[in-house]
Amino acid sequence: MNLVHRRLKSLGMLVAAGLICFSPLSWASEPAQVCKKEIPEITFKNLSPPYKDYAYFQNHEFFPFQHQSASFSLINAWWLAEAATLVYADEAYAKQRFSAAGLKRLKFFNKLSTQCFIASNGQFAIVAFRGSEGWKLNERFDPMQIVADWTTDFDIRLSDWVRGGRVHRGFRDALEEVWADIFPYMKNLKDEGCKIWFTGHSLGAALATLAADRFQHVQGLYTFGSPRVGDQKFQENFKLRAYRVVNGDDIVSRVPPAGIYRHVGELKLIDRKDSIHDGLAAMEETNASCRNNSDASGGLKENKKSDLSQLIPDSIRDHVPLLYAIFLWNNLVKKKVAVNELETDLDRSPADGR
Fold first, then answer.
1. I want to staple 129 with a disulfide (CB 3.0 to 4.6 A). Which of 20, 56, 204, 318 is the partner?
2. Alpha carbons 175 and 186: distance in angstroms, whole number
3. Lowest-confidence segment of 10-24, 157-171, 313-327 by average pLDDT
């Protein structure tokens, strides 16, 4: 092998080492087989959580949460999307699933319009806020709960925020309901050395954003299908490490109106081919509102749509929390396969002849 070929091989090995050692995908013990998940057909029956038949945190032992991460982590995005979906379930079910994933210490905070789970294990804590109960149709119907959530969602007047700027009054008041309870609990966890992570879907994403900004001792914030939360001053003051994941044309990510309200956090867009892109330019380039469902998940087709499911607009379908978790998982598997293929190619390269 000549000098040029040896140098190219060395460069390839360095690239592979960087992918494996320094990317967010630093794998634990190799699983026998890790596969993409099937994309469920979204119907009126499964449009809303909870999803009691879903295997939460499946294969988590091969993809441990990176609790000290200081940049975007696909592994952490998947973990936190699972958590943001799980917290729509009842306390007993959520506790069982969090515990199975190694988060055996769970505290549930429950007020009229705000529900929050804090799951921890001594190294890190996940603070996960539940989204609107009006979205949750598969369990006990509670009209008072739904009215409370609607009041929170639709009170879009701006109000002063404790850290400057102005924020959505309904979101601010909903967080205030639980703040006196969750703040000392989170502070104790921080004092014990836990890294604190915040997450939520929909209304839960808005509450997680405000709670993280108010608490400040935050390792990371990941939101899914988040509405806009505050004004330009709030956006300018917001300095936390935050990632805002949006699936396609998710309708909730487009409210309240732009201009007066601003998003915070680094945008991660899941396009119609189940690939993740960065920034607003990616949203325009991928034309998310034209998602082709048959091409979802990079070749893994969604179950065939029934006549009734076709009545659900893509902008509503894209907001389904379960899809966030599955699409992120499939991206995780896709990235792992790419790393494995690169390693295999390097192993098969000719010897350098020395």
1. 204
2. 14
3. 10-24
Whole-angstrom distance, CA of residue 172 vs CA of residue 206 = 9
Q: Report, as an integer, the average pLDDT of 70-85.
A: 98
Degrees (nearest 5) of the Cα angle 270, 275, 281? 60
pLDDT at 18: 42
- What is 218-280 written as a DSSP string? -SEEEEESPPP-B-HHHHHH--S-EEEEEETT-GGGG-S-BTTBB--SEEEEE-TTS-EEEHH
Backbone φ and ψ of 152, nearest 5°: -65, -50
Higher-confidence residue of 335 and 285: namely: 335
Q: Residues with Cβ < 8 Å from 233, sequence gap 6 or more?
A: 164, 165, 166
- 3-class SS shares of the chain: helix, strand, coil, % to 5: 45, 15, 40
Token pair of 105, please? 């210490």
Domains of the chain, with CATH numbers?
31-332 (3.40.50.1820)
The reported pTM is 0.82
- Intra-chain end-to-end CA distance of the chain, in Å: 8
If DSSP codes are grouped into helix, strand and coil, which group holds residue 301? Answer: coil
**Which residues, at least 6 apart from 17, have a Cβ–Cβ distance to it below 8 Å?**
none
pLDDT in tens, 7-33: 444 444 444 434 433 344 444 555 546
